[in-house]
Amino acid sequence: MSIKTKHSKNYLITAATFEEIQLLFQYLKKNYNFKKINTQHFVFDVHNHHWHLVITGVGMVSTSYHLGKLSANKYDWAVNIGIAGAFDKALKIGEIVIIQEDIFSEMGAEDGSHFIPLSQLHLGNEKIIPKKLFVPKFFSYIKTVKAITVNTVHGKLSSIKKVTKLYQPQVETMESAAFYFACEQNKWKNCVIRSISNYVEKRNKDKWNIPLAIKNLNDLMIRFIEQS
Fold first, then answer.
1. Which of 30, 177, 181, 214 lies 20 to 30 Å from 57 when distance is taken between CA atoms?
2. 56-79 pLDDT, tens per residue?
């Protein structure tokens, strides 16, 4: 890894899967020097800054584990990128959003057909509103949304109706609340940027557009890194 100079900065980009970050990775690999730390962690030197790309794996547990391994590092900004499903039909497929509020929507207890959130059990808070959220001016035009983070993506009408009534989410992911929680603990400035790949409805992959969502997201990140 190159030595950090006086004016250089360390940035962290995480994604759950390589596919979600592949276009960005290929662009950086083609144009800049890099070092492979391991099979999931690469560092690219771009315009005197160091961009760490880390593939965490899918889900909250894997995300938390890999960010925990990085907790001794100092990052000037950490960002999680990837795709997301949208409850809000005003969001377009392929649209980029920034998550400004997140919820561990499955944290709680069942009482028959009634769900009790963690906060009502007085065992913590299921809501994450990052105090160290930082959105660079480059992204200032992007819509901010409320999200839930889940272990099981919704695909059944009854469960979609239930979680919508309880939390009124606009999007859902499988990692974002865990990312925010870890970054807050590590005292890193942070942000989650997601691209809409599908609507949250009865599962029908024929209506999804993952390639478009990934392309739009990676193109955006390439432009951002080049101007940083």
1. 30
2. 999 999 999 999 999 999 999 999
CATH code of residue 38:
3.40.50.1580
Residue holding tokens 């913590």?
Answer: 124
Amino acid of residue 225? I
Residue 4 lies in a domain: no
Determine the structural domain holding residue 24 and report its residue range: 10-227
Ordered DSSP codes for 52-86: EEEE--SSHHHHHHHHHHTTTS--SEEEEEEEEEE
* Structural domain contains residue 175: yes
Query: What is residue 93's predicted lDDT score, i.e. its pLDDT?
Result: 98
What angle is formed at CA 57 by the lines to CA 54 and CA 61, rounded to 5 degrees? 110
Cβ-Cβ contacts under 8 Å for 151 (sequence gap 6 or more):
59, 60, 106, 174
Cβ-contact 27, 226 below 8 angstroms: no
Residue 53 lies in a domain: yes
Q: What is the mean pLDDT of the chain?
A: 95
How many domains does the chain contain in total? Answer: 1
Tokens for 166? 């309880």
**Residue 5 placed within a domain:** no
The Cα 111–Cα 158 span in angstroms is 17
Query: CA-CA distances (angstroms) from residue 142 to 38, 40, 96, 138?
Result: 33, 28, 7, 9
Q: Record the pTM.
A: 0.94
